[in-house]
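Moderator note: this is an archived Q&A kept for reference. The question asked for a predicted structure of one protein chain; the sequence and the answer are reproduced below.
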Amino acid sequence: AVLPLRNFTGNASAPADLVALLRVELEQRGARFVPTDELEAFLRERRIRYTDSLAADDAHAIGVATGANFVIAGALLDYVPGSTPRVALALRALDAASGARVLSKVVSLRGEDFEGLLGLGRIEAVEPLCDEAARALLAEFDEHGAPAARTSRRTTAHGPDGGSSFLADDFDPEMAGTIAVLPLENRTGRGEAAAYFAEFLGDAWFRSSGAQVVETAELRRALVQQGIRSMQFVDLPQLCSVGRVLGVRYFALGSLDRWGHEVTVDGRRYPQVQVALRLIDVESGRMVAAASVVRRGDQYQTILELGAVRDPLELARRTAAEIVAALGG
């Protein structure tokens, strides 16, 4: 079951174009899809408004009603046609029986990303850039069109210097299991930045260790059930109560301080991302890990000025992976 991508871009046709590319190839591999009208009727019946996230019981209900094994959900974060095209989206597949994430992928591409020496290779139309995005997504599916099997694994992201981290002596990241990311304090002045970064954190935790990040829809429901309408006045005992309702061991909370703000280095302008996170143990109410990371696009530059990151979304994706690694993976 492929939910409509939540579209943050203002371009109405963009999500349909990307999903169509994905579906064609997956059908050739053997995947079968729930008919669109049947899925839309289900969403109306369940009053599901935002399709970038799905609570576990809703995923299970889709499976029961339609026979689907997996539910694909996600958001289109950027889509700019023209001679300097951009495409960015976050996609994941949920197991219909349990609601658990079984696939996760963030793709953020610009036409200029493909430019090599002497300006060769640059993509100057959005259609071939969408083809590249679809190719990156398809790599996450197996030869039968199902999400590729993933096992829990731990990797370490090695990024440029900058930032700090703390891990309590008795904190075992292997026991994290399920994490709930509370809405980050957004100090960037950019409305959706914190929501985007939460998407990147979920992807990073899943891809680094298999840890599950609670779906936003599930977290929102638990907060409402506990009578919490605003994070401004929530105390730690209330948070721990929500955590027990969700069945999670840790909460992640913090602030996104900079996002895409440009800084000048040697006469060139580069985006910058700054974030601070801490993990709270739901059982003890104690902070067990904390990290802060600051990244600039030029810090990834190699010889001949290649490798610099000029896309704020791609820089944020890398920063999310690095802060997750700093928190123990």
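Archived answer notes: The longest strand covers residues 250-265.
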